[in-house]
Amino acid sequence: MRRPNLLLIALSLTLGTATIAAAERHKPAEYQDITDEERAAAKERSRSHMGSWKEVDLPPEYHFPWMQIGFIAAALAIAVPFAWSAYNRSAKELRDTDAFAQNGPPKKRAKPAAPVAEEE
Question: What DSSP state is assigned to residue 60?
Fold first, then answer.
C-alpha cells in the first residue's frame, strides 16, 4: 500500500519539475529594449489613481428584499396548516396503536350519569 503512494508522489514531482524546467523563461534583455516614454507610461499605469472625495464612487443603496420575504411568508402560510394537520393525524395514530399495549386501541369509557335532581 505504501509503495504505490510513494511512486505516485515521485512521479508527480518529477513531471512537475520537468514542466517547470521546460517552460521558457522571460529574459531580462527583452525588457531592456523599451524606450523611456514606454517606461514612463508603464509607471503611470501602475500608480493607483486616487481622486478627490467628490469623485469617489459611492456604494449602491441597499434595498431590503421585501418581495422574497413576502413569498416566504406566503409559502409558510400555505404549508403550515397542512403540516400541522398531518402531524396531528400521525400523532393520533401513534397514540391509538401503542406498540407496547396488548389490548389494541384504547376503548372509550362511558361517562358517569349526571345526578338527577330530586323534586319535592
Answer: P
Q: What gap in Å lies between CA 112 and CA 63, rounded to an integer?
A: 65
Q: Are 97 and 105 in contact (CB under 8 A)?
A: yes
Which amino acid, one-letter code, is at 119?
Answer: E
- pLDDT tens, position by position, 73-109: 999 999 999 999 999 999 888 887 765 655 555 567 7
Q: Distances in Å between the alpha carbon of 35 and those of 25, 28, 29, 41, 42?
A: 22, 15, 13, 10, 11
Q: Cell triple for residue 21?
A: 524546467
Give the three cell numbers for residue 45.
Answer: 499605469
pTM value > 0.85 = no
